[in-house]
TrEMBL record:
Protein name from the UniProt record: Radical SAM protein
Cofactor: [4Fe-4S] cluster
Segments forming domain Radical SAM core: 30-275
CDD domains listed in its UniProt record: Radical_SAM
Lineage: Bacteria, Pseudomonadati, Pseudomonadota, Betaproteobacteria, Rhodocyclales
A GO term, aspect molecular function: catalytic activity
UniProt keyword terms in alphabetical order: Iron, Iron-sulfur, Metal-binding, S-adenosyl-L-methionine
InterPro entries on file: Aldolase_TIM, rSAM, rSAM_sf
Kinase as UniProt keyword: no
Amino acid sequence: MNTLPQMLTVTDHNRGFIDMTYVYPVVSRRAGGVSVGINLNPNNACNWHCAYCQVPGLVRGAAPEIDLELLETELRSFLHALLHGSFMEEHVPVEARVIRDIAFSGNGEPTSSKAFAEIVERVIVMRDAAGLVDVPIRLITNGSLIDRPYVQTALKALAAAGGEVWFKFDAGTAADIQRINGIDVNPETHARRLALCASLCPTWVQTCMFRWDGELPSRELVSNYIAMLELAGLAALKGVHLYGVARPSFQPEALHLQQLSAHELKAIARQLNEKGLTLTVSP
Ligand code: SF4
């Protein structure tokens, strides 16, 4: 799944919002606010198959046709509930009663929706109409479809609206990417996509690290990964969100994965820091 692991989804309140098709609330004390999630993959379909993916029943595929009117209705009503209803009071701790972001982050790859550019435009309009111009819109993506013209159109619109991208990059060799992300891709190709993405919209890299069958990420794995970020161009990146596997994977590969300690993750973060990258670390 594309969300970061520290998020605590509201699961036992307010069925009306939980039962929406595309929009879901995520309340995070740690991140200090409410994230308005937009899931364009209610069919649990992704073109990747990451070993750590938290989507139950994940299948290969693309987003289904999106009911744009329903998406608009859900987003408008949820923003209204946050701003003018009792949602915050009833479900959000006092210290987290702010809208942190609107995030395209769901049960698959959001940019696989052919309507993605139109959806981004509509979400920007609705955000602004709700008086939330300063709330950032984030795209959490595996970055595999950046070459598609409609995705580039959406990225430019996101950038103009103050948004940003979190772009998945976990390893720097084809073999490691195949093992971790379940996809056959040349790492140089993915680095070029990252560079293209960063040229169109402010971009963070999101990277998940863990033990595999008890083994730490090797020095070689980390240095190959850093080499790919260098190939993309470190100066163009906002930084790296480095995180571990705090929540269980729902994939068969889960049995290979073990969480790194905070100390182990920080050791990897130091190597990235030495390259001058800004880091956030979430074990
Ligand atoms: S990119 Fe990976 S983690 Fe994200 S939804 Fe697809 S398979 Fe899951």
